Write a sequence for this structure.
């Protein structure tokens, strides 16, 4: 798709390998809501490892907004033959289409596969280019005769561009932990900010793990050795298989992460009697300060993302210790500002991960279904707002007079 008057073209390619990685990452680096999951290396690993490819129901179609050889905007789009691995649930929409004899799949999804982390999805240097990219996505989906387009876990700037392109917004709830300004002095200071019953519960849970003889060690970046990566994958895979599913991500993906993005990973390993028994892998964005086309590596003001975990043995409260308390303690000690706990999970509220709204954008080609979904989203949005209000009233934080 081209527009000679404005001297730009929208081009669609089926692999990140044909995209200039430096230009892609330079676009990401100037975004207000950049995350490591939109780096060229991350998206390339998803495809080269076979984790997010056509045979797994994720047919890649990377959309590029270009002027000459300069990349003005870009996004990762996938044609989906199912709705797994998205964390914004549209199964009822697909069922409604099926009941009326209409195909819902393939649909177009602009997202990071298997990664419900809010952030920039439409990369662009200017508001105008972001709007052009959003409008171009809708135009391309119409030309491909697709049922729908979904931009998942988008940034505020993305939402504005998508709304301008005629897309509908949908809200859900996640739970994030925030370090206070100037930051908690230590984990005990953090506990002191909580209501008494929440402090007591966390201390009890941590005590159970310690009394079971479990200790933790952590490694970051290149210090995570090959044996630790292999142990992590054993735990991760086993936990999926215990729930009757194969893991979304394979060994080759994590091997690529260890090679191409080592500085974005933090690994906790639980040990008992000298034997490793569990692990949690945390993604980190070492700094929210942008520096040209590269992310700063200073551990100041960073963000951590709870991602993957697994265990070979069952220990009461081990999941909470590995996935929340150890990472939160690490964030405090290293001056990180935020820990994002991932999709869903109201149990996170009791552990001081507070509710925040996450937003996606949606376009449906069929006018009658688009109208029905718009009405549904209005009702659902009211329910989400009420749910957020209820969660905030149940805040775990200590009241000022306590």
């Amino acid at each position: 798709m081209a527009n000679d008057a404005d001297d730009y073209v929208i081009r669609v390619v089926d692999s990140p390998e044909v995209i200039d990685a430096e230009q892609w990452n330079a676009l990401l680096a100037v975004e207000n809501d950049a995350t490591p999951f939109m780096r060229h290396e991350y998206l390339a690993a998803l495809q080269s490892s076979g984790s997010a490819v056509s045979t797994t129901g994720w047919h890649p179609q990377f959309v590029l907004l270009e002027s000459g050889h300069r990349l003005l905007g870009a996004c990762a789009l996938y044609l989906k033959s199912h709705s797994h691995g998205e964390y914004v649930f549209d199964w009822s929409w697909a069922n409604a289409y099926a009941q009326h004899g209409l195909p819902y799949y393939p649909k177009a999804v602009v997202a990071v596969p298997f990664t419900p982390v809010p952030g920039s999805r439409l990369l662009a240097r200017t508001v105008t280019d972001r709007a052009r990219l959003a409008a171009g996505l809708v135009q391309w989906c119409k030309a491909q005769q697709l049922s729908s387009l979904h931009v998942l876990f988008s940034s505020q700037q993305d939402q504005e561009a998508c709304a301008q392109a005629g897309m509908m917004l949908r809200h859900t709830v996640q739970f994030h932990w925030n370090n206070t300004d100037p930051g908690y002095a230590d984990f005990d200071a953090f506990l002191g900010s909580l209501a008494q019953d929440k402090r007591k519960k966390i201390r009890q849970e941590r005590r159970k793990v310690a009394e079971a003889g479990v200790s933790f060690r952590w490694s970051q970046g290149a210090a995570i050795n090959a044996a630790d990566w292999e142990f992590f994958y054993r735990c991760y895979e086993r936990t999926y298989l215990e729930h009757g599913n194969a893991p979304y991500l394979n060994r080759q993906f994590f091997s690529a992460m260890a090679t191409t993005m080592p500085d974005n990973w933090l690994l906790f390993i639980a040990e008992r009697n000298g034997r490793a028994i569990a692990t949690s892998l945390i993604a980190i964005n070492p700094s929210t300060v942008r520096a040209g086309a590269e992310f700063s590596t200073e551990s100041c003001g960073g963000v951590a993302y709870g991602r993957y975990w697994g265990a070979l043995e069952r220990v009461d409260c081990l999941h909470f210790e590995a996935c929340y308390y150890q990472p939160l303690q690490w964030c405090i000690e290293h001056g990180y500002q935020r820990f994002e706990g991932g999709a869903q999970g109201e149990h996170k509220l009791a552990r001081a991960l507070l509710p925040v709204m996450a937003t996606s954008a949606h376009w449906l080609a069929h006018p009658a279904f688009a109208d029905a979904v718009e009405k549904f989203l209005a009702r659902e949005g009211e329910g989400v707002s009420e749910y957020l209000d209820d969660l905030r009233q149940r805040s775990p934080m200590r009241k000022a007079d306590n």
